[in-house]
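Researcher: Good morning. I'm working through a list of sequences from a screen, and I'd like to move beyond sequence-only analysis. For each chain I'm collecting a predicted structure so we can compare shapes side by side. This is the next one on the list. No need for commentary yet; just the structure.
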Amino acid sequence: MSLYRDEGIVLRTQKLGEADRIITLLAKRTGRVRAVGKGVRRTKSRFGARLEPFTHVDLQLYTGRSLDVITQAETLRPYGERLTGDYPRYTAGVAMLETAERFTPEEKEPALRQFLLLVGGLRTLGAKVHDPRLVLDAYLLRSLAVAGYAPSLEECALCGARQDGSASERSRAFAVAAGGVTCQSCRPPGASTPAVQTVALMTALLRGDWPDADVSEGRHRVECSGLVAAYLQWHLEHSIRSLRHVEHV
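Model: Good morning. C-alpha coordinates for this chain:
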Protein backbone atom coordinates (compact mmCIF):
# COMPACT_ATOMS: atom_id res chain seq x y z
CA MET A 1 0.00 0.00 0.00
CA SER A 2 1.42 3.37 -1.09
CA LEU A 3 0.18 6.44 0.81
CA TYR A 4 0.40 9.92 -0.64
CA ARG A 5 -0.95 13.38 0.12
CA ASP A 6 -2.17 16.11 -2.22
CA GLU A 7 -4.64 18.94 -2.46
CA GLY A 8 -7.23 19.26 -5.16
CA ILE A 9 -10.55 20.55 -6.43
CA VAL A 10 -13.44 18.06 -6.49
CA LEU A 11 -14.74 17.99 -10.07
CA ARG A 12 -17.60 15.50 -9.75
CA THR A 13 -18.86 12.51 -7.81
CA GLN A 14 -20.77 9.34 -8.66
CA LYS A 15 -22.37 6.67 -6.54
CA LEU A 16 -20.57 3.39 -5.93
CA GLY A 17 -22.37 0.58 -4.16
CA GLU A 18 -24.65 1.42 -1.24
CA ALA A 19 -22.51 3.89 0.69
CA ASP A 20 -19.43 4.83 -1.33
CA ARG A 21 -18.70 7.41 -3.99
CA ILE A 22 -16.12 7.75 -6.74
CA ILE A 23 -14.58 11.21 -6.40
CA THR A 24 -12.99 12.79 -9.47
CA LEU A 25 -10.64 15.64 -8.58
CA LEU A 26 -7.93 17.74 -10.13
CA ALA A 27 -4.96 17.58 -7.77
CA LYS A 28 -2.12 20.06 -7.57
CA ARG A 29 0.75 17.60 -7.98
CA THR A 30 -0.88 14.39 -9.15
CA GLY A 31 -3.22 15.71 -11.85
CA ARG A 32 -6.64 14.21 -12.40
CA VAL A 33 -7.40 11.45 -9.90
CA ARG A 34 -10.35 9.12 -9.46
CA ALA A 35 -10.59 7.80 -5.92
CA VAL A 36 -13.11 6.04 -3.72
CA GLY A 37 -14.56 7.78 -0.72
CA LYS A 38 -15.69 4.86 1.42
CA GLY A 39 -18.89 5.35 3.37
CA VAL A 40 -19.23 9.02 2.43
CA ARG A 41 -22.93 8.65 1.62
CA ARG A 42 -23.73 7.61 5.17
CA THR A 43 -25.11 10.36 7.39
CA LYS A 44 -22.41 9.70 9.98
CA SER A 45 -19.55 9.88 7.49
CA ARG A 46 -16.52 11.74 8.83
CA PHE A 47 -15.81 13.62 5.64
CA GLY A 48 -18.66 13.10 3.16
CA ALA A 49 -19.57 16.80 3.05
CA ARG A 50 -15.93 17.71 2.32
CA LEU A 51 -15.95 15.73 -0.91
CA GLU A 52 -18.56 17.67 -2.85
CA PRO A 53 -17.94 19.43 -6.20
CA PHE A 54 -16.24 22.86 -5.99
CA THR A 55 -14.52 22.00 -2.71
CA HIS A 56 -10.78 22.62 -2.41
CA VAL A 57 -9.56 19.81 -0.16
CA ASP A 58 -6.38 18.47 1.37
CA LEU A 59 -6.35 14.70 0.99
CA GLN A 60 -4.51 11.61 2.06
CA LEU A 61 -4.94 8.64 -0.26
CA TYR A 62 -3.49 5.23 -0.86
CA THR A 63 -2.94 3.73 -4.27
CA GLY A 64 -5.33 0.98 -5.26
CA ARG A 65 -5.35 -1.42 -8.19
CA SER A 66 -7.88 0.50 -10.28
CA LEU A 67 -9.03 3.34 -8.03
CA ASP A 68 -7.18 5.07 -5.20
CA VAL A 69 -8.86 5.29 -1.80
CA ILE A 70 -9.31 8.47 0.23
CA THR A 71 -8.40 8.00 3.89
CA GLN A 72 -8.43 11.64 5.09
CA ALA A 73 -10.01 14.86 3.81
CA GLU A 74 -9.82 18.39 5.15
CA THR A 75 -11.56 21.35 3.58
CA LEU A 76 -9.28 24.19 2.51
CA ARG A 77 -11.83 26.39 0.72
CA PRO A 78 -15.52 25.56 0.14
CA TYR A 79 -16.01 27.48 -3.12
CA GLY A 80 -19.43 25.92 -3.61
CA GLU A 81 -20.91 27.89 -0.72
CA ARG A 82 -20.67 31.13 -2.74
CA LEU A 83 -22.11 29.56 -5.90
CA THR A 84 -25.00 27.27 -4.98
CA GLY A 85 -27.41 30.12 -4.22
CA ASP A 86 -26.60 32.02 -7.43
CA TYR A 87 -27.76 30.11 -10.50
CA PRO A 88 -25.74 32.02 -13.15
CA ARG A 89 -22.55 31.61 -11.11
CA TYR A 90 -23.33 28.01 -10.26
CA THR A 91 -23.84 27.00 -13.90
CA ALA A 92 -20.68 28.87 -14.91
CA GLY A 93 -18.81 27.01 -12.18
CA VAL A 94 -20.14 23.64 -13.32
CA ALA A 95 -18.89 24.42 -16.84
CA MET A 96 -15.46 25.22 -15.40
CA LEU A 97 -15.31 21.88 -13.58
CA GLU A 98 -16.34 19.96 -16.69
CA THR A 99 -13.81 21.83 -18.83
CA ALA A 100 -11.02 21.14 -16.34
CA GLU A 101 -11.79 17.44 -16.55
CA ARG A 102 -11.81 17.50 -20.37
CA PHE A 103 -8.43 19.24 -20.47
CA THR A 104 -6.88 16.56 -18.25
CA PRO A 105 -7.77 13.34 -20.13
CA GLU A 106 -4.89 11.29 -18.73
CA GLU A 107 -5.17 10.22 -15.10
CA LYS A 108 -2.26 11.11 -12.83
CA GLU A 109 -0.65 13.30 -15.47
CA PRO A 110 0.54 16.44 -13.60
CA ALA A 111 -1.38 19.54 -14.72
CA LEU A 112 -0.30 22.28 -12.32
CA ARG A 113 -1.20 25.19 -14.58
CA GLN A 114 -4.70 23.85 -15.20
CA PHE A 115 -5.12 23.33 -11.44
CA LEU A 116 -4.01 26.87 -10.60
CA LEU A 117 -6.22 28.27 -13.35
CA LEU A 118 -9.25 26.44 -11.97
CA VAL A 119 -8.57 27.65 -8.42
CA GLY A 120 -8.24 31.22 -9.66
CA GLY A 121 -11.38 30.95 -11.76
CA LEU A 122 -13.50 29.63 -8.91
CA ARG A 123 -12.13 32.27 -6.56
CA THR A 124 -12.95 35.05 -9.04
CA LEU A 125 -16.40 33.61 -9.72
CA GLY A 126 -17.20 33.44 -6.01
CA ALA A 127 -16.02 37.00 -5.39
CA LYS A 128 -19.09 38.24 -7.33
CA VAL A 129 -17.25 41.24 -8.78
CA HIS A 130 -17.44 40.41 -12.50
CA ASP A 131 -20.25 39.07 -14.67
CA PRO A 132 -20.20 35.26 -14.33
CA ARG A 133 -20.23 34.67 -18.08
CA LEU A 134 -17.21 36.94 -18.49
CA VAL A 135 -15.39 34.98 -15.78
CA LEU A 136 -16.27 31.72 -17.49
CA ASP A 137 -15.15 32.92 -20.93
CA ALA A 138 -11.88 34.20 -19.47
CA TYR A 139 -11.33 30.82 -17.84
CA LEU A 140 -12.11 28.94 -21.05
CA LEU A 141 -9.77 31.09 -23.14
CA ARG A 142 -6.93 30.71 -20.66
CA SER A 143 -7.50 26.96 -20.38
CA LEU A 144 -7.17 26.78 -24.15
CA ALA A 145 -3.97 28.82 -23.98
CA VAL A 146 -2.47 26.56 -21.29
CA ALA A 147 -3.30 23.54 -23.46
CA GLY A 148 -1.57 25.17 -26.44
CA TYR A 149 -4.73 26.20 -28.31
CA ALA A 150 -4.81 29.97 -27.72
CA PRO A 151 -6.79 31.63 -30.53
CA SER A 152 -4.97 34.11 -32.72
CA LEU A 153 -6.69 37.45 -32.10
CA GLU A 154 -4.26 40.11 -33.35
CA GLU A 155 -2.63 38.38 -36.31
CA CYS A 156 -4.09 36.32 -39.14
CA ALA A 157 -4.08 32.71 -37.95
CA LEU A 158 -3.05 31.53 -41.43
CA CYS A 159 -0.59 34.05 -42.87
CA GLY A 160 0.44 36.00 -39.77
CA ALA A 161 -0.51 39.42 -41.13
CA ARG A 162 -1.23 41.80 -38.28
CA GLN A 163 -4.88 42.70 -38.01
CA ASP A 164 -4.82 46.41 -37.28
CA GLY A 165 -6.06 49.53 -38.99
CA SER A 166 -9.62 50.39 -39.93
CA ALA A 167 -9.62 48.61 -43.28
CA SER A 168 -8.57 45.24 -41.88
CA GLU A 169 -10.92 45.63 -38.93
CA ARG A 170 -13.88 45.93 -41.27
CA SER A 171 -12.89 42.76 -43.10
CA ARG A 172 -11.82 40.74 -40.06
CA ALA A 173 -13.15 37.20 -39.87
CA PHE A 174 -13.03 34.51 -37.20
CA ALA A 175 -12.59 30.92 -38.30
CA VAL A 176 -12.70 28.27 -35.59
CA ALA A 177 -10.94 25.58 -37.66
CA ALA A 178 -8.23 28.03 -38.80
CA GLY A 179 -7.31 28.99 -35.24
CA GLY A 180 -8.76 32.48 -34.80
CA VAL A 181 -9.00 35.71 -36.78
CA THR A 182 -8.06 35.73 -40.44
CA CYS A 183 -7.44 38.46 -42.97
CA GLN A 184 -9.70 38.91 -45.97
CA SER A 185 -7.26 37.10 -48.29
CA CYS A 186 -7.11 34.00 -46.06
CA ARG A 187 -10.76 33.99 -45.01
CA PRO A 188 -12.05 30.40 -45.33
CA PRO A 189 -15.65 29.55 -46.28
CA GLY A 190 -18.02 29.60 -43.35
CA ALA A 191 -15.98 32.04 -41.25
CA SER A 192 -17.96 34.43 -39.07
CA THR A 193 -17.55 38.21 -39.05
CA PRO A 194 -17.56 39.32 -35.40
CA ALA A 195 -17.66 42.94 -34.36
CA VAL A 196 -14.31 44.58 -33.69
CA GLN A 197 -15.44 45.09 -30.09
CA THR A 198 -16.10 41.36 -29.72
CA VAL A 199 -12.56 40.44 -30.72
CA ALA A 200 -11.27 43.18 -28.41
CA LEU A 201 -13.30 41.64 -25.57
CA MET A 202 -11.82 38.20 -26.26
CA THR A 203 -8.36 39.75 -26.17
CA ALA A 204 -9.11 41.49 -22.86
CA LEU A 205 -10.39 38.27 -21.29
CA LEU A 206 -7.37 36.30 -22.46
CA ARG A 207 -5.05 38.94 -20.98
CA GLY A 208 -7.03 39.42 -17.76
CA ASP A 209 -7.82 43.06 -18.61
CA TRP A 210 -10.93 43.34 -16.43
CA PRO A 211 -11.43 47.13 -16.66
CA ASP A 212 -11.96 46.80 -20.42
CA ALA A 213 -13.96 43.59 -20.15
CA ASP A 214 -16.33 44.96 -17.50
CA VAL A 215 -17.43 47.91 -19.66
CA SER A 216 -18.18 45.77 -22.74
CA GLU A 217 -21.69 45.82 -24.18
CA GLY A 218 -24.10 42.93 -23.77
CA ARG A 219 -24.32 42.16 -27.50
CA HIS A 220 -20.56 41.82 -27.72
CA ARG A 221 -20.51 39.55 -24.66
CA VAL A 222 -23.09 37.27 -26.27
CA GLU A 223 -21.12 37.11 -29.51
CA CYS A 224 -17.89 36.51 -27.60
CA SER A 225 -19.43 33.63 -25.64
CA GLY A 226 -20.63 31.98 -28.83
CA LEU A 227 -17.18 32.15 -30.43
CA VAL A 228 -15.41 30.94 -27.29
CA ALA A 229 -17.80 27.99 -26.90
CA ALA A 230 -17.43 26.97 -30.56
CA TYR A 231 -13.65 27.30 -30.44
CA LEU A 232 -13.39 25.32 -27.19
CA GLN A 233 -15.53 22.45 -28.36
CA TRP A 234 -13.72 22.26 -31.71
CA HIS A 235 -10.38 21.73 -29.99
CA LEU A 236 -11.72 19.37 -27.36
CA GLU A 237 -13.54 17.38 -30.05
CA HIS A 238 -16.25 16.98 -27.45
CA SER A 239 -19.19 19.08 -26.37
CA ILE A 240 -19.27 20.67 -22.92
CA ARG A 241 -22.76 19.67 -21.87
CA SER A 242 -23.00 22.16 -19.02
CA LEU A 243 -22.50 25.10 -21.42
CA ARG A 244 -26.07 24.58 -22.61
CA HIS A 245 -27.35 25.58 -19.18
CA VAL A 246 -25.08 28.63 -19.08
CA GLU A 247 -26.33 29.84 -22.44
CA HIS A 248 -29.94 29.87 -21.20
CA VAL A 249 -29.22 31.99 -18.11
